[in-house]
Design goal:
This protein is α+β, with helices and mostly antiparallel strands and about 210 residues long. The chain has two helices and eleven strands.
């Protein structure tokens, strides 16, 4: 072999090695390089004052005929559950404060111009579902209709008591209470047929 041919082959091998080394270097650079980032957040305590609030489970209820007699037609149903919630601390509640939920109804208006049925024909029997462990929340008395006899046969014409707490501060730690009521509409047997609607308004006072 001539000297010149040996040199050429050595040069070729050297170039080939350099090319392979270059390819290997590119492959290594393509591997991921992991890095971490700490994510920090400061969440401040909510310092807004608590509130005394009321909610009602539904906005409608339907009465159906049950227990009618030859002279009086009766329609019954249930008031959707009323929840009173108090998120205040004892320090936020005035001394001797107490709360109450009351209800009153409009007259029943017919869908086809029938004579109205006065709110005095609608009564209720309050029911305390969860009055807490203190025993300081109580349900109101039954309110009968103008077709009944008895001391409270006025119907839901004015603000009638559903439930009340005797001392807001003493029971604030309990946080929540619930009540509903059995509703009954009593009319003369001669009442005009048709669909009627009334609005029963519930109010929370302290």
């Amino acid at each position: 072999m001539s000297k010149s041919g040996f040199v050429a082959r050595c040069a070729a091998v050297t170039v080939g090695s350099m090319l392979l080394a270059g390819v290997a270097g590119i492959a290594m650079a393509a591997e991921p390089d992991d890095a971490g980032v700490d994510v920090n957040v400061s969440i401040a305590e909510i310092n807004e004052p608590g509130v005394l609030a009321m909610s009602v489970a539904d906005t409608t209820t339907t009465l159906t005929e049950e227990g009618s007699t030859a002279t009086v037609r009766q329609f019954t149903g249930t008031l959707p559950t009323v929840t009173v919630t108090d998120t205040r601390t004892a320090d936020e509640i005035p001394d001797d404060a107490f709360w109450s939920v009351v209800g009153s109804s409009t007259d029943f208006t017919g869908d086809a111009g029938q004579p109205t049925i006065g709110a005095g024909h609608l009564g209720w029997a309050p029911n305390l579902i969860d009055g807490g462990s203190s025993g300081q929340v109580s349900q109101g008395e039954q309110v009968d209709t103008v077709l009944d006899s008895g001391p409270d046969n006025v119907g839901l014409v004015d603000q009638e008591l559903l439930a009340m707490a005797f001392d807001s501060g003493d029971i604030a730690a309990e946080g929540q209470w619930t009540a509903n009521a059995s509703l009954f509409l009593r009319t003369p047997a001669t009442v005009a047929a048709g669909d009627y609607t009334a609005r029963l308004t519930l109010s929370l006072f302290e």
